[in-house]
Amino acid sequence: MTVALSSAVLLGLLVLFLGAGIWIFAGLMLVGAGSMYFAGDMPLARIGSVATKVISSSAISWELAAIPIFMWMGDIIFRTDISQRLFRGLAPMVARVPGGLLHTNVLGCTIFAAISGSSTATTATVGKITIPELMARGYDIRLASGSLAGAGSFGLLIPPSIAMIVYGVLANVSIAKLFAAGLMPGLMMAALYSGYIAICSVLRPERAPRFEGEVSARTLARGLLDLVPIMVLMVVVLGSIYSGIATPSEAAAVGVLGAVLITLVTGQFSVALMLDSLASTIRVSAMILMLIAASSFLSAALAYLHLPVEITEGIAGLNLSPYGVLAILALLYIVLGMFLDGTSMTVMTVPIAVPLITQAGFDPVWFGIYLVIMIEMSALTPPVGLNLFILQGLTRASTLETVRAALPFFLLLCLGVVLLAVFPGIALWLPNRL
Amino acid sequence: MRLEATTETFDAGHAAAGPATSAEPRWLAAIAALSGGLNRLAAVLAGAMLVAMTALILVEIGMRFFSRSTYMADVFGGYGVAAITFIAAPWALEQGSMIRVTVITDRLPGLLRRLVEGAGLVAAGAILWFLLVYEWSTVARFWSRGTMSQHFIPVPLWIPEAFFAAGLVLMLLQVAVRLLRLCVTGRTDDTTLSL
Hints:
With 434 residues, chain A is mainly alpha-helical.
């Protein structure tokens, strides 16, 4: 069968199964088995033995252990008074800056992202307190919810990051390097968001009421004290990975210990909290890990059909410039992102996209960061955008209003990708120094 | 994909098990309860394994300070994550945590929607059954030959494979419950998804 025909069979099966509302992991397995059978003319017995072998061996992975353990750490912290602490700590610092307390969204997400690997958790944790506080103080709801939608996605960009672990395992890229590469782009995006908020507030002061009073040194110091436990956890987890002392899975285990200690020291430890966090972690990790296992089988099926190589050669034959390849991928990701979540997008595209961008001369570590920003965009695009759903839950605004509020921050993410493409050093400087 | 990801559902996922309603015949409620009970049992086991895995890694790091090692943390970590994946998956499935795209099915009229949902369940059940047939023979082969892994502490290979097989069995049971419920009551119940 020709490449064009096998690709068409594969795409057709994919659209059919996913469109019919089949669980994505089952859909990916069906597409894998179906394309081996129809496009590869393989006997069922062979497909069955390949499928079970690949699925089971892909799940037996020391690197993947970092996913449930990091999620557990984040979930324990999520169930503490972290939201209030972040707000109390950050509000005095930003009260007098143009844009005022709106910056608690951006800074809060930046800090929480450094102890959480998930962007939905980041959005929900920070928004739980900032949205009601900002609304009560008369801040413009669109700026408040838009900045939260945008900044919430730092959960994936600023390490630790579940999306980076998934990408690292599938693309065989060092997770520690990816974690290092995400830091500067994360801070760059935070600066872009805060800059935009400040400019908006200067141009239209009614959107962000200025705080005219004095902030005493005592209030500031107290606020800083509130942030100490999170900062310590952040330094321990990221420091141990960056310094090479611990692998990501080990750093995650130390992070869980740190999170439990924080609940003990702050008097918030309870058996119920631990059990709830464990239950939630198990549920979400099973979903992510099943997707990875299913996609490993799909990748194996693609490889049997020689599709990644043939498609890469086909696109290389078009003589596109490297930036042309990136632009096509960006379009593909934006469309996929309207319907899929980040993990599904990653597992479905990595087998084809990584050979393609390596051929075009890009660093796979750099591409990991590019992909994460694309996933962040997908959380902001309707009809299926995870951060939009969380925001709607918090603000009770209509879908259209929520989408409009998030749009400027979506465009800032696009600007961020362009900057990253023009100056790849933003991502690669730090990992190359470790 | 349907989501109601307010902060309430965000941490209330485990409370939203597929409930048996009064409209459901007793035999179906009994099968659903069996499936739910087994799924929860498997999930508790998965939770215990996550705790054990985290503890083992911490012990390994602690021993490093004394220049010693368990020599097994990475191996058991790898097997542990596979076991957690497969035996927690049925519960995640039951709870509606497995992601799916419902943008299209949500817009279909009643009967057509039920047909599409039913066909989807049959297809999902078919692939799970297909995998179970071949996975079962793998487990049986490792068991009868007594194949061991090539590690410092050899692990009988049928054990990790059995977790995969058990997960497939439980997922099949849950798919059957959903399919029966769809046929009998016409209900396509998917609880909220929370991430």
